[in-house]
């Protein structure tokens, strides 16, 4: 039962079918994606997205230039990094950037106060930096929901401790300024993306689910032949179906962050969407079991 809930049975079956294929068979060439969206010059959402990002950057630039505080220039960089077309994805990126920057700043502060005074050569420095970079790389290779924390943590730590390549760094002001800049940029971006043309993924979530269910129906219609080309086509759609269900789950998580929506309607949409995803996976599992039973009976 636990394996079924984790979708391990379908994954194992797909891997077994992949192992039965001839590795010397050339893959089917993939279609080249277009360099520009078809509605690039007609959809106003692109222009609104650019204007919102520009407005957030302009506010931050005007602020740190007006107060003559160059150290918080990371606020403008934050506006560019966390910029996403939808409110939920922007909030998600803001949380990840703030969390990574906070962890990196704490590590840089402890490193500067407790470790840096005891280092005498480059070898000792590398031995101290290696575990921190290893931790950041380990976090960066995790799921999309938390991977950016590792990248941001290492970047913040490196900017604070390795900026002076010709000697040790003892200035704690840089650590403070970079952290404050990230906080300011996050707040400005949150205000802009919430109140200026907020774009929600709640409208596109049903379309995303419809696409996943369409792939499910295509998987059930394709005959499972032993011919290599047909088997590859089936497995490509099957793997794409798993990715589509995962993408729908991630979109549900982003919609949950869109606080500008009505709380009851948002919760109802997420609950029903998760029900559709769960039933779609159950249907795929039942279809596999039915097919295997029919094959066993000959």
TrEMBL record:
Molecular-function annotations in GO: transmembrane transporter activity
TM annotation in the entry: 95-116, 122-141, 148-166, 178-198
Subcellular location: Cell membrane
UniProt keywords, alphabetically: Cell membrane, Membrane, Transmembrane, Transmembrane helix, Transport
Top-rank taxon, per record: Bacteria
InterPro entries associated with the record: PHBA_efflux_AaeB/fusaric-R
Name this protein carries in UniProt: Multidrug resistance protein
The encoding gene: mdtO_2
């Amino acid at each position: 039962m636990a394996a079924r809930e984790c979708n391990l049975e379908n994954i194992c079956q797909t891997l077994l079918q992949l192992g039965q294929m001839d590795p010397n068979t050339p893959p089917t060439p993939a279609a080249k994606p277009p360099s520009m969206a078809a509605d690039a010059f007609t959809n106003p959402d692109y222009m609104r997205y650019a204007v919102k990002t520009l407005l957030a950057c302009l506010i931050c630039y005007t602020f740190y230039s007006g107060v003559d505080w160059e150290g918080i220039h990371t606020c403008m960089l934050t506006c560019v990094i966390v910029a996403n077309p939808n409110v939920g994805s922007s909030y998600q990126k803001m949380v990840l950037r703030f969390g990574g920057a906070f962890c990196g700043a704490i590590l840089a502060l402890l490193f500067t106060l407790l470790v840096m005074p005891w280092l005498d050569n480059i070898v000792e420095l590398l031995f101290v930096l290696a575990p921190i970079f290893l931790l950041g790389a380990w976090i960066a290779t995790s799921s999309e929901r938390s991977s950016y924390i590792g990248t941001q943590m290492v970047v913040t730590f490196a900017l604070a401790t390795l900026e002076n390549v010709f000697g040790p760094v003892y200035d704690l002001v840089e650590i403070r300024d970079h952290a404050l800049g990230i906080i300011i940029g996050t707040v400005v971006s949150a205000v802009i993306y919430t109140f200026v043309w907020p774009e929600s993924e709640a409208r596109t979530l049903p379309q995303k689910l419809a696409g996943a269910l369409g792939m499910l129906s295509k998987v059930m219609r394709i005959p499972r032949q032993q011919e290599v080309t047909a088997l590859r086509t089936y497995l490509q759609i099957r793997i794409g179906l798993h990715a589509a269900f995962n993408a729908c789950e991630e979109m549900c998580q982003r919609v949950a962050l869109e606080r500008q929506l009505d709380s009851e309607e948002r919760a109802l949409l997420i609950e029903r969407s998760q029900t559709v995803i769960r039933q779609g996976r159950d249907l795929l599992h039942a279809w596999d079991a039915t097919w295997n039973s029919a094959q066993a009976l000959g």
